[in-house]
């Protein structure tokens, strides 16, 4: 009886792990035992703790094996600190290489890439990088090419609410978060190729793609989700009129249902 009772409990365990990927320590969390593999990719300075808690807790663990990571130099994937000069300043491209390598190393490729905010860029790049080895499909929740003016608009942390700053300050401490955010803004504004991450390669994305946008998003110009939808063949666009930038955190049940329906198609 004890063994029978323990079995369903074991399935619910959430694993907090660290491994070495391309010479860097990478922290990740893994839940579920399902046949469909999913990688959750956090946004700028984001981590498992700040960006995807409702998904780690709420996605069906019998259907999915879900991995979320702290990108190199973020969250618990430190030290070492983030090197913004990686790949000639293309730090998001470096993240994509690490993300793909992590999932292959874990034996979880192919997989669906689910990215929010800056993680949408990483999801897109990971999909492009993984094409030769069949690493799709990519359920890309949010692909964002931030406009310079919008980056400047969110640069001043004094304009952030305590609710927005709080999770990041809990991870980094107030002083380190402030300095790291300034580093990110400078690196993003100075991204090579005029800040064009991969808009010219969107036609190469040939996997099922879901783009989700909150109509009240103050961070991302509406032109972005329209451009992505128009240039990624066969993509599906969902716009929530009552949502903003962090719609998966503010409306987790609704979002998780949408994501699961997409993953199950």
Automatic annotation (TrEMBL):
Residues 38-257 form the AB hydrolase-1 domain. One of its GO terms (molecular function) is serine hydrolase activity. This is AB hydrolase-1 domain-containing protein. Gene3D superfamilies: alpha/beta hydrolase. Pfam families: Abhydrolase_6 (PF12697). It comes from the Eukaryota.
């Amino acid at each position: 009886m004890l063994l029978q009772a323990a079995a369903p409990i074991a399935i619910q365990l959430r694993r907090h792990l660290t491994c070495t990927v391309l010479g860097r320590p990478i922290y990740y969390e893994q839940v579920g035992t399902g046949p469909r593999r999913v990688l959750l990719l956090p946004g700028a300075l984001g981590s498992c703790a700040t960006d995807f808690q409702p998904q780690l807790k709420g996605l069906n663990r019998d259907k999915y094996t879900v991995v979320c990571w702290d990108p190199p130099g973020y969250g618990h994937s430190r030290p070492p600190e983030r090197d913004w000069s990686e790949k000639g300043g293309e730090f998001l491209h470096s993240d994509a290489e690490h993300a793909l390598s992590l999932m292959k190393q874990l034996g979880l490729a192919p997989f669906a890439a689910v990215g929010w905010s800056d993680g949408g860029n990483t999801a897109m790049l990971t999909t492009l990088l993984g094409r030769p080895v069949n690493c799709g499909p990519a359920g890309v929740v949010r692909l964002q090419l931030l406009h310079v003016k919008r980056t400047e608009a969110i640069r001043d942390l004094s304009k952030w609410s305590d609710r927005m700053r709080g999770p990041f300050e809990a991870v980094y401490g107030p002083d380190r978060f402030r300095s790291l955010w300034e580093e990110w803004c400078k690196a993003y504004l100075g991204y090579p190729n005029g800040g064009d991450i991969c808009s010219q390669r969107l036609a190469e994305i040939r996997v099922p793609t879901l783009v989700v946008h909150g109509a009240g998003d103050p961070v991302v110009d509406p032109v972005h989700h329209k451009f992505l939808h128009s240039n990624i063949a066969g993509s599906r666009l969902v716009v929530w009129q009552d949502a903003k930038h962090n719609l998966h955190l503010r409306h987790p049940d609704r979002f998780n249902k949408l994501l699961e329906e997409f993953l199950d198609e």
